[in-house]
Each structure stands twice: as C-alpha cells, then as structure tokens.
Design goal:
This protein is α/β, with parallel strands linked by helices. 35% of the residues lie in helices and 15% in strands. The protein has 15 helices and 15 strands. The strands form two sheets. Strands 1-8-2-7-6-3-5-4 form an eight-stranded parallel β-sheet, with helices on both faces. Strands 11-12-10-13-14-9-15 form a seven-stranded parallel β-sheet, sandwiched between helices. The radius of gyration is 22 Å and the shape is globular.
Length: 429
C-alpha cells in the first residue's frame, strides 16, 4: 500500500468530530453568491447537522467520513463543496468529481439534486447507471462532463472501455458505502479509487461503520475527519415506531385494518421476498386505490415509472422489497409498514428512514409473528429505543417470548482528533 494511506482502523474511531449545529443559515458557510442563489431557488434555508459539519471540512480539502442516515440532507452536503470548486467545462472537459452510489434509483436522484444545486451555472452532470442506454452515456462523456454520478458496476464498465477518464478527478464520493460493500461492490470500488489520482479528496458517507467500511477507509483515505450524526438516528421525535404481534395467517387482514385506521398520505409496505411483494400487491390492488409494487426483478424502466408515480403522489401505497430501503428520498412518505420483519437491523434503520424526512412527522409499524421476538429485541438494541406495542380491536395480541436482558454497554473511550491533512493543491473557489 502506498505511503499516503496511513490511517488505521482504531484511529478512525478516535477522530470523530462532535460539533453543535449552530449554523442557522447557509449564508454563514461562506458560499459563493451563485450557490446562495441556487439554494434559495431550491428552498434550502437552514443547514442540517451533516451539512453544517461536512461542507466546511470538504471545502478545506480534507478527507471526511460522514455517518448519517438518508433523509438528513447528505447529498447537498457533498454536492455543494464539489460545485463550489469545479473548473469550467472550457478549462477541463474530463470528469473532476465521481460520486459512487449503490443503486440506479439513487444515482438518478443524486444526479437530479446535484443539477438542481447548480442552478444558474452551466454544469454538466452525467449519470452512469445500469439499465440505461450506454451509447447515450458514451456520447455524453465524449462531449465533456464535470461530475459523474454512477453505480459501481457501470462505472467499472466505463473504465474497462476507457470511456471514463479519471486523470482530472480531484474528488471521489462514496455514498451509502456500507450498502455498496454489503452487496459485493468492493472490487469495483477499489478499482475506481485506484484509477483516480492519489492526491484526490475522498468523502465517504455511510449510515453505519462496520469493519468492511473501516478497512476501506484505512486503505484509501488520509487522516479522515469523522462526523457522526447517527448517535440518535432512530430516536428522533419525528418518527413514531410501533409494533403488532400477530399470527402469520392474519397478517394481511391486520394490514387491511391498519391501512383503514391510519389512512396514510403515502405508505411503503416492506416485504421480505419478491414473490411475497407481488402476492400482497395483487391482493390489495383490488380493494385499495392507487397501489403499486417494486422489486429487483422489475425492469429498470418500470422501476423508474413506479418511483416517479410515487413522487407525483399518484401512488398511495407501495409494496416493495428492500430495493427501496436505501437512498430514496421522497418527503411525502408518512407511513412505513414492515409487513415482514427485516432480518438485518440496519435494514430496519433504512426502511424506517423512508419516513420522517427532513423534520417531517412519520410513523413506522412492524408486524412480529411468534418466533421473531429475538429479532425485535435486536432491533430495539440497535436503535437504542423500545418500540411501542400497538393493537387493533378484534386482533388478540400474540404472546412473544420474554425479552432477553440488555447487555451492559461499555464506556466509550475518549476521542482524539488527528491533525488535518495538508493537500498539496487545494481547489479554487
């Protein structure tokens, strides 16, 4: 490994920056007049905690690990400093920044948000994701782009074709890094990082920091500053979290009663399998208007159509697998219903994170059947919050095994701050 990469896993845990969100306006972040106009046009007023902390560090050229769940404004947190420091297309026609995301849907979303924040300034953003016509992507790259947003697989394809030139890249963003590593994209990510200049800036955004993410940071980042906005990620007041105990053969009936009781503005019903999603959608589409479904077996064009219908409020209820559990930012989702308990606690965090976006109120319900009591306990320990038991008349509560006692939490070690990195060449504003 090159000498540049000197950070160690234990150091990452010790560099966490805890900064109070005292910034009340983007005007306090020393942004350009053009960016302030774009933010006003996009109705951005008060920076979120992740924006308050990440933007100044990124503008200084530091490597940063930002731990924050989706819906906290992290796209703008990394897009703003990139846009503020871009060279014009006349000065450089090759990509200057690469933003890597786990899914096609998130790539489209990040691309649109970045373009929106570039309002009033000629900026070329290319979205390179699977399921899209690659010939159009090739033409766009050949014509010149400043920012590339893409999925690891498609970015890797363009590297193999030599259509994606990386010599001018000065910033790489890894968004939803934990998710990308979970689904096996580490080889593609590592090749992207190795192809970019060694003196680049790297920004890593992740809801969790498991060992896989830490090892990636250890290998490819320089003394990263760590921003932790997830300490109370699921204890936010805007998300009310409840659960039902129910026999397996009564889940669909309970769901019908719950939808009638809640009458949600928009709801996502999460199922564990593609087959279960289709079955539930067919059943409820006969009795509930404006239903849709989404899972990984659907063609990308159809998935895009469903998501757009959800954004346009043409859909009221979406039955889906975890394909929409991460990175989809639709502020009008009022209810999340875990029809099937997620097997992974982090999946629960990301599912529930589809509601309560940017301070809006939301509610999440989880159906728990006999034999899943331990999963419920694990979720509560993960989010450091006890879910409230709910009930509906006519449904007798199913008794779950008693909860295991919570393990004692060891006292966190004192945190140290490493010296910031000094980059040879800082980006111009």
């Amino acid at each position: 490994m090159a000498e540049r990469y000197t950070v160690h896993m234990n150091q990452i845990a010790e560099t966490t920056t805890e900064t109070e969100n005292t910034v009340e306006s983007f005007d306090e972040l020393d942004l350009s007049p053009a960016m302030r106009r774009a933010l006003k046009k996009a109705d951005f007023s008060t920076p979120s905690p992740i924006q308050t902390q990440l933007i100044p560090l990124a503008m200084e050229g530091e490597d940063v690990i930002g731990q924050a769940r989706t819906g906290t404004g992290k796209t703008a947190a990394f897009a703003i400093p990139i846009l503020e420091q871009l060279d014009s297309l006349e000065d450089c026609r090759d990509p200057q920044a690469i933003i890597v995301v786990p899914t096609r849907e998130l790539a489209d979303q990040v691309g649109k948000e970045t373009q929106r924040l570039a309002w009033g300034v000629d900026t070329e953003v290319a979205v390179l994701a699977g399921g899209k016509n690659i010939n159009g992507q090739l033409r766009q790259l050949e014509n010149g782009v400043q920012i590339v947003v893409g999925t690891p697989g498609r970015l890797h394809d363009h590297l193999q074709r030599k259509s994606l030139r990386t010599n001018s890249v000065w910033c790489v963003v890894l968004d939803e890094a934990d998710r990308m590593l979970d689904i096996g994209f580490r080889p593609q990510i590592e090749r992207i990082l190795r192809k970019c200049p060694s003196d680049r800036q790297t920004l890593l955004l992740s809801a969790t920091l498991p060992p896989t993410v830490r090892r990636l940071a250890e290998s490819y980042m320089v003394n990263p500053r760590v921003i932790d906005c997830c300490k109370d990620e699921m204890a936010v007041e805007t998300i009310e979290q409840r659960y039902f105990t129910v026999a397996h053969d009564r889940k669909s009936t309970l769901l019908d009663h719950l939808l009638k009781r809640e009458n949600p503005e928009q709801a996502i019903v999460f199922c564990r399998t593609k087959r279960g999603t289709d079955r539930l959608y067919r059943h409820f589409s006969h009795t509930h208007e404006n239903c849709g479904s989404m899972h990984g077996d659907m063609q990308q064009r159809e998935r895009d159509r469903v998501l757009q219908s959800l954004r346009d409020r043409k859909l009221k209820i979406l039955f889906a697998t975890d394909v929409v559990g991460r990175g989809i930012d639709i502020s009008t989702i009022s209810h999340i219903i875990n029809y099937d308990v997620p097997q992974d606690c982090d999946d629960y965090v990301h599912r529930v994170g589809r509601t309560g976006r940017m301070g809006r109120e939301g509610v999440a319900f989880t159906f728990v059947v006999p034999g899943e009591g331990e999963v419920l306990t694990s979720i509560e320990q993960r989010i450091n919050k006890e879910l409230k038991r709910d009930s509906i008349e006519g449904f007798e509560a199913v008794t779950l095994p008693p909860k295991a006692p919570e393990p004692e939490t060891p006292q966190a070690p004192s945190k140290k701050r490493l010296n910031p990195m000094h980059r040879k060449v800082k980006r111009r504003r």
